[in-house]
Amino acid sequence: MADRTSSSPRADAAPTRSWWGWGDPAQALPDAECAALAALVPGAADTALPVPPIASLELPPVRVSAPRTLAHLVSGDPADRAGHTYGKAYRDVVRALNGDLAAAPDLVAFPREERDVVDLLDWAAGADVAVIPYGAGSSVVGGVEYRAGAHAGVLSMDLSGMDRVLETDRVSRAARIQAGTLGPGLEAQLRPHGLTLRHFPQSFEFSTLGGWLATRAGGHYATLHTHIDDLTASLRVVTPAGVSESLRLPGSGAGPSPDRLFLGSEGTLGIITEAWMRLQDRPVHKASASVLFDRFPAAVDAVRAIAQSGLHPANCRLLDPGEAALSGVAAEGTSVLVLGVESAHHPVESRLAELVALARDHGGSPADGSPASGGSAAGAWRSAFLRMPYVRDGLARMSVISETFETACTWDRFPQLYEAVRRDVGAAVREVTGAKALINCRFTHVYPDGPAPYFTVIAPGRRGSEVAMWDEIKAAAIRTLGEQRATVTHHHAVGRDHRPGYDRQRPDLFADVLRAAKRTLDPAGILNPGVLFDTAR
Amino acid sequence: MADRTSSSPRADAAPTRSWWGWGDPAQALPDAECAALAALVPGAADTALPVPPIASLELPPVRVSAPRTLAHLVSGDPADRAGHTYGKAYRDVVRALNGDLAAAPDLVAFPREERDVVDLLDWAAGADVAVIPYGAGSSVVGGVEYRAGAHAGVLSMDLSGMDRVLETDRVSRAARIQAGTLGPGLEAQLRPHGLTLRHFPQSFEFSTLGGWLATRAGGHYATLHTHIDDLTASLRVVTPAGVSESLRLPGSGAGPSPDRLFLGSEGTLGIITEAWMRLQDRPVHKASASVLFDRFPAAVDAVRAIAQSGLHPANCRLLDPGEAALSGVAAEGTSVLVLGVESAHHPVESRLAELVALARDHGGSPADGSPASGGSAAGAWRSAFLRMPYVRDGLARMSVISETFETACTWDRFPQLYEAVRRDVGAAVREVTGAKALINCRFTHVYPDGPAPYFTVIAPGRRGSEVAMWDEIKAAAIRTLGEQRATVTHHHAVGRDHRPGYDRQRPDLFADVLRAAKRTLDPAGILNPGVLFDTAR
């Protein structure tokens, strides 16, 4: 069976997906566009790394085989194995482009129903096969890549065949949804009911509900209910020890929340198969405005006042001067605050006016034509936002180092964090690449007690050393966040790449508890080993 | 030391507290008032049970003694032991009135700083002394009463000497607060900073921050951030295995939330010693209105529309016709919805108008003089609300059975739940007491996906059988909630009394995880045994 070349058992309707880079292969940047982009980065390569054909890839031999009763769910096809080797971090893309697929899983499973997940886990636990739960593979933290090296085999468990909304409750505005459902399919199935989850991470098209839940994904809303956690009414999880299902409730104070144990467990404790999610009516009233600031600290103060006002804007995105310049939305040195308000029920203009007034109180100037009722500017921004990962891939093909990292800290710490990142990560980039980094910042989410800043770092790399250079820069970023007592991640998860920061950040006793939970739920230690914590084997 | 009668080591400034009933002994109802109340309940007793003098109580002998280095923190005084035997459930009050104090702890400890908590736990773990964490003893679920029977001794750990706000961060609106701080002291210490926690459970005067955190208390706000959980930025917890402290963050997606493990752990995993809490500016704009409904189902629909509107009223309290009549606020058969809006930042009249319009759309009629700007009506309601536990004690002295239980369910289930509680708990009351129960309902909190209904049950009991009768009625209530798939508690915690419902409600695997967490953090099994789950000894 090592040479299994029959067609994959994945669902026929499954969309084509890039095996090496982001999303839809048809949207990858052509070589000329890659080169044009790289021309903007002094010191970048002038030819694009070629994408190797799948047939040319050297995959390690398949070491295990599924029992006959499960064979129809499992693929050893090279394309499936190559496509499930990595997530979509910069270092993943570069390694794939280099044809480095030593970490490929032996097999990829495509369960169609929960019973399949149970049976596959039963087999894997008995056969010492590590299981990597896989939604759509958009992890940027090494969350779906096996690195442990100690198991008899590795199975990537692709949930994308479990993609249905199973039940809706219109009166409570909730739905029971299978974990493998991708963002667009989820919204398409809710639309006839007039409902929406309104959880729009940047990966929306290429990530699943189960992935969002397992990684505590952050969505569209800038304030209030930012993480998927708060939209979750109950979870159903298959573990090697059995199935856990929580009671669907609007709120409860009965013991510690069982759902909060699995939210963020990143596949180490079980595989989420379905969830009751809290939904919303589709918004019909929308309004947005942009406000310009000469001084970034004044803009930060304005955002803090807004975050503490109780007005809960749907959008509250602050771009620092570098980010604003890169986006082409403002003159040199100007910070831009984009505000958006929406409601399914009542007009929102007066609330937007209150928000703009707060911004003005802190020295902001509403941009021309603002406030506006959304429309084309928001649409253009959304397109650019969804396009960014493809641009990152194009830069990777030009050996340009590109890294985004996001965090959260309290307001009292932010000014110091902002300076430290620019100073210390900038120094690391100079040390590693010899060049000056472009380091920009925006706020993706804001809370009454602090912002979630998102940093973009771009610098020219050396062909052949991209991964090593990226790793050093990433290490500096993680170190700086730890020194500043900011979280190693606000919504990108921990995976394997963020472990150095996470190990320092979380209470040691809590790691002991997670290990104890794992011994209880996954006694054979097969589920996503190395993510979040190490376990003795 | 069994006869230690020296003065208690509790703080001199500690307020006098009723040892048998609610709160301040000076506010207990005089006998005549008890009798007048009971006259409203056909079949009630006509004389009040006397309150036994402490000197007359027969307490079990003290079996253990603290080491010399800790003796100054520990009391074996009968008044301390009697006052720490029970919480404040109906059955607790009746047993205390009957002088039944067989469950009294051997000792009561009054730590003054975290080091004391560590040392006391070290001693207790080595001496097989069970430790019952105790804030101010307002538990109504047997949360502070030792029932396990298997330990060498029992220590009640009273945190009320650790009552300070240690640090404030005005810019992030947060404070680091010791767990033993009572509600009024907490607000008094925040007031000079212009800040407030604004968490006002009914027990506010006689409960502590640590108790709120350990039990996932519900506060003042009817919507949005109802539980203390969402106001918590980080926790510091002393466990027998060491101290766990989480990083203070406005939001994070780094692994499962460590705080959510301790929130609701009810003293079984560790003793919370301090927390960083998210605060708010003190509100200056307030407005409220009452709306009357002829039909309760229409009122429920109105509340659902409001809960799903995104308008987040601070108050949204719906009284069913029985509750409204008892409160004297409406004519027979009328349901009353009380709405309140408040803000520290912007006028709220337009938002109140939107809420009232929604209620009117569903058939509601604004009451005379409504909307109003708060003031006396709200103040009168608040006084009555805080007085209720004293009234309950007065009824207990007249052998009237009085039970309140609260829950939450999704909107689709509420109509059936409401009928089932009135039918099945009503039948149980008739069976047990031979009388027709008064069963009223109000919503204390509402969410987009469902309400938190709070039921009051009043019926005449038989002197000497009050506890047995109450237990049967409580069992019927718990059974009914379970059958209706409603939570056994929304904000009163599980303790020991709610175990039958909790054991049925929570996933079995989650209980296994909690036991594994306990083996990790409390290997000697001394912390609050029997709460939430059983452990092998």
How would you summarize this macromolecular structure in one to three sentences?
2 copies of one chain form a homodimer. Chain A is of the alpha+beta class.
Which helices and strands appear, and what pairs or packs with what?
The structure is a homodimer of 537-residue chains.
Chain A: H1 31-38, E1 74-75, H2 78-83, H3 90-97, E2 107-109, H4 114-127, E3 129-134, E4 153-158, E5 165-169, E6 174-178, H5 183-190, E7 195-196, H6 209-215, E8 232-239, E9 242-245, H7 258-262, E10 271-278, E11 280-281, E12 285-293, H8 296-307, E13 315-319, H9 321-327, E14 335-343, H10 349-361, E15 365-366, H11 376-397, E16 400-406, H12 414-433, E17 438-447, E18 450-460, H13 466-483, H14 499-505, H15 508-521
Parallel strand pairs in A: 2-4, 3-4
Antiparallel strand pairs in A: 1-2, 5-6, 6-10, 7-11, 8-9, 8-10, 12-14, 12-15, 13-14, 13-17, 16-18, 17-18
Helix pairs in contact in A: 1-11, 3-11, 3-13, 8-10, 12-13, 13-14
CATH fold category name of the domain at 25-161 in chain A: Uridine Diphospho-n-acetylenolpyruvylglucosamine Reductase, domain 2
Which of globular, elongated, flat, extended, rod-shaped describes the shape of chain A? globular
CATH H-level homologous superfamily name of the domain at 25-161 in chain A: Uridine Diphospho-n-acetylenolpyruvylglucosamine Reductase, domain 2
The total count of strands of chain A amounts to 18
Main beta-sheet annotation of chain A? 7 strands, antiparallel
User: Quaternary status of these chains?
Assistant: homodimer
Highest-level CATH class of the domain at 25-161 in chain A: Alpha Beta
Q: What's the architecture of the domain at 25-161 in chain A, going by CATH?
A: 2-Layer Sandwich
In whole angstroms, how far apart are the ends of chain A?
A: 28 Å
